[in-house]
Every structure is written in structure tokens, then in C-alpha cells.
Request: fold
Amino acid sequence: MPKYFGQYGGQYVGEVLRPALDELAAGFAKYSRDKKFLAEYADLLTNYAGRPTPLLYAANLTRELQGAKTYIKLEGLANTGAHKINNALGQVLLAKKIGKKQVIAETGAGQHGVATAAACARLGLRCEIFMGAIDAARQQPNVFLMKQYGAKIHIVEDGTRILKDAVNACLKNWTARAADTHYLIGSALGPYPYPDMVRFFQSSIGREIKKQLWQKEKKLPDVLIACCGGGSNSIGMFAPFLRNKKVRLIAVEAGGRGRKAGQHAARICSRSPLGIVEGYKSRFIQTDDGQVLPTHSVSAGLDYAGIGPELAALAEARRIEFLTASDKEVLQAYQYLARTEGLLFALESAHAAAAALKIIPRLGQDQIAVINMSGRGDKDIFITAAELSKKEWGEFLKQEVERLCG
Ligand SMILES: *Cc1c(COP(=O)(O)O)cnc(C)c1O
Reply:
């Protein structure tokens, strides 16, 4: 397998980590073709994660928008509430096969940490999660959930105490104990072989869509729409269609509050420069001299300065079209989907929905669009309720604080 996607990707790590990455690449090459491994993984996806997830015909939205016939892939119905579990299960199972005793991971918003902790609990490996102190303080619900799954949480007090500091701490920790420890990366990024591995474990999303749509419509979709942070749900949805050149692939980045640096997380749409960060070469929101800049999005899962190397390459090749959705459009789409289809989108996934609401009316009624609902929105209640129902939510929180803290 090549280590690059065009000029993107690679394996930019210190010598000490090479052997661990080589071992992982060899293990992945072997087990991704191993019938027994694949059967065990498929069983976990079916009976633990709840796959295949449904492909819902969005009848009300289709009627209202009068454009393409629209389907929604309900990844939010997967166990733990999002697509992240597909990758977590695959990597934990692989780690076990190659003889690892424990799994470490870093998490920003906590979604990846929760999926990793759950997968480790299910498969019986020890789990340690690194989290910046600031992130841990503001994501207390996910810290609580990870602990319920038996994970040990390392609070990182270095640097700015956010995700990138947790990544550094996690890498440092891995360097010291890679012989018996697997580092589980949660998106389609990082040094080779992670982007390949994550794509492999996420592509059941696209494969199921192909099959489900064939059963319902006897044809391929015309347009696929997914939100894009690191790129795992989008590449998982798109990969099985890359060779079907007539299928339009649309990835939606976080437009945030505006186009100024610090206000968004639109790597491709803001024409971010090339860089090498966290072990791989891609486009990063950074200064000319390579300082990674802060980002913003209403959705924690898209609030990241980098993008998976394969997605950057497919953007450059114009195979994937990139769009943005602003925080405001995202909250509107979230409310629209809740009322129109009874679906509570995760704020990440609501980026795909927001773009879809603009695209679908411009398509013909003989066309088919699929939106990936990468996760469900229950987890976002502290953000959505504060934005959309500030007074009542504030009163509720005050009452809870009084009840708990007197
Ligand atoms: C983490 C997350 C994302 C963003 O990550 P990708 O790797 O780009 O998929 C999107 N949706 C949900 C629900 C997430 O939890």
C-alpha cells in the first residue's frame, strides 16, 4: 500500500515510533484479508453496533423542497450514537489480534473517547484516554460516560490544555510503551497506515448505502453529502463510490461564525496551506510560518485545524466538492430536520443537512440525494438548548446547581 495520496499523507514520526507503525501496517494488511477476523468484526457491527443502520426515505423533506428524492443514512442509530464506533471496534479488535494489552487515545470533545472506551469494554482491553484539562472541564458528560465504560482518564495540563496538547501527551505516552499498547486514532488522519485503516473500518457506511439504495431504487445515488472534520464519516460514505464518476460527492466543512482566522474550521474552502502536523502532510489552518491557528465551530467534532490526507487529495483532484455551512445555518437545519422528519441531527451532521437544504431544491426530481446523519443530537443538548432556549435552560441549570450544591 502506498504511504501517500498524491502529495498528502506520509509517515512523519520519530524513529522510535517507526517499528510500532510498521507492525500496525503489517497487522492491518494481514487481518483486513483474514476471513476469521472479518467475520468477528462483522458480528460486532451487527450485534453490538446495530448495523446495518437504516437508510430512511426523507418523504416530508422531499415533498417540501421539490428537488431530488432524498434519503438519510442513520449512523446516529449506531450504538454510542455515531459512526465513530465502526472504527473503534475495528481498531480494538485488530489491536487484540496483534497482541496489544491496552489501548490509548486522545479526545477533544469526548465522542471518540466514548466510542473507544465502549469498544474496549466490549472486547476486554484496558483503555486510557488523554484529554486537555480545558476540554475535560467543558465536556464533563463525556468524561463521566468514559469512566462508566471503565476507562482511565489522563487530564493533560501541558500547553494550552486542549486537543493538540492531548495528542502530544498521547504520542509521548505511546513512544514509551508501544510494544504492548495500541494508539487508536479516531479520524481518517495521522501517519500511515491510520488513514487507510480508518477508511477501511468506516466504509461499511457507503457499502450499505449502495446496497440499500439498489434494493429501493435499482440505481446509484446522484449526490452524497457528508460533514467533514478529520474526514472519517465522509470517506466512509464516499469510498465505495469513488470509481462511480457520475456520483457527486460533497463534503461540508465548519463555516463557523465567519471567514476570519479563528472563526471557522474550513481547511479546504479557506485554501489553507500545506503543512506537516501530528505525523502527516495535509492542509492545515495555520500561519505562513506554520503555526497552527485556533479554529471555531458550534460542533465540537468539526472544530479541528487539519483534514485527512486522502480528503485533501480528493479535493485537489476535484473528485470531492467542498462547501461550508455556518453555525447559524447549522442550527436552522438541526431544527428543520427535527420538525420535518423527527430526526435530531448531531451538530456535526447538521452541517451536511444545512448544505443539503441548499443543494436539493436545485436538483431534478428524478435525482437521488443521500445525506449522512453521522450522529444523533442528544449529546449536544448543552449547546442547542443554550442557543435555542436560553432562558428556560438557564433556569433549569440554576435549579440543578442549587439542588446539588445547595
Ligand atoms: C467526530 C464526529 C464527526 C467528525 O469527524 P469525521 O472524522 O470528519 O467524521 C462528525 N460527526 C459526528 C457525529 C462525530 O462525532
The chain is about 45% helix and 15% strand. The longest helix spans residues 390-405.
